[in-house]
Amino acid sequence: MYLEHFGLMTKPFNIQPDPGFLYSAPQHESTLTVLEYGLLSDAGFVMITGEVGCGKTTLVRHVMNNLPETQVCAYMGTTHGDQRNLQRWINMAFGISIRHARDEAEEFEVFHRHLLDLHEQGKQALLIIDEAQNLTLSQLEMVRLLSNVNESATMLLKVALIGQPELRTLMKDSRLKQFAQRISMEFHLTPLAVDQVEGYVQHRLRVAGGDPRIFSTKAIKYLAYHSRGVPRVINNLADLALVYAFARGEKQVSQETLMAVVKDRMNQDILPLKEERAMTPSSPAVPSKTRTVEYN
Known about the structure:
The chain is of the alpha/beta class. It has helices spanning 3-6, 26-40, 56-65, 86-93, 104-120, 137-146, 166-171, 177-181, 194-207, 217-227, 231-248, 255-268, and strands at 45-50, 71-76, 124-129, 157-163, 183-189.
């Protein structure tokens, strides 16, 4: 609709995770380092958390796309508390046939044999569980027990848990004390600050083949404030702003256009946006206390 008008090759602000648009802010680089090191070294469990829309899945897909051939990765993108047989879902993620398994014990044995076969081929099994905050305590305990296959010096399986902040709360439950002790690498991904939002927007415009100055500086600052620095919300507002600017015949998205977009979204009361207040160029996109990086 607006691609030709702005000289773009593709949509720059698609809300679907796309590793091709990965923006390397410091917190994203740190997350990538923790995730890659945790999956490629002899670390225990890896845990990555972050608010909804902060880009966790995009980072995970980037890592998956760049794994060496010796790494066999299974990705579980949907988890729910009503998944009674988590082992079956894990087997399916690895593409393991369990048609002849009579119960959960045999399903685990099939899984174990698969890991041993991979090891004999010189390969390493990786399991990435996204939206892990939806797992129940019993399911998380079952995931911990999977690490028992690594009792010898050989690491047959490495596991990464990806989830929202609620996952960290779950891990503080005394019943998961043994699990928490096995998490050797963790990181909490934070939203972008105002200056990072400008780099983020311009980066995506460049990747899409357009002029990085399609959004005015004032428009980006307005966007940064109301989005709270959350990439998915930025994409949502920025994409709609391009539509509004196209309809108005603008070649550059102005602050006024962004104001119209934010006002309309607030009136619809669907997308939660930050209320209006005075903002200076150095103002953070989110309160400073929520931007603290936790790294253990």
